[in-house]
Amino acid sequence: MARYLISFNDGAMDHIPDEDWPDVGKAAHAVIQEAVDAGVWVFGAGLERQRASVVATDGMVTDGPYPETKEVIGGFSVVEVATREEALAWAAKTAAACRCAQEVRELMPDPETDAMLRRADRR
């Protein structure tokens, strides 16, 4: 099983009229519930529109990119599925619910972190 990041850029949902937001929220939560029920949901969230802080290796904190920057992520979900095609299918459901295109990227596996989490769950 592989984990996939499904994300969209900040501003991708700006075309949605205010009166449609309750329907969009209901549709998005229905997709999340379907993913939870299917056992593929890992985590997801929308991101607040704000400047990011960048923390350098020496600990210095500076302002990061502004939300108006096209590269800023507006929201994301992580699913754990057997194939890329399955991840793309979940992204299609998310795109329809959220009324915006979704980007799909496979996350690199990290067996050491997975082992740490399994040990922590046993405590």
From TrEMBL:
Residues 39-106 form the YCII-related domain. InterPro entries: Dimeric_a/b-barrel, YCII. Belongs to the YciI family. This is YciI family protein. It comes from Sphaerisporangium rhizosphaerae.
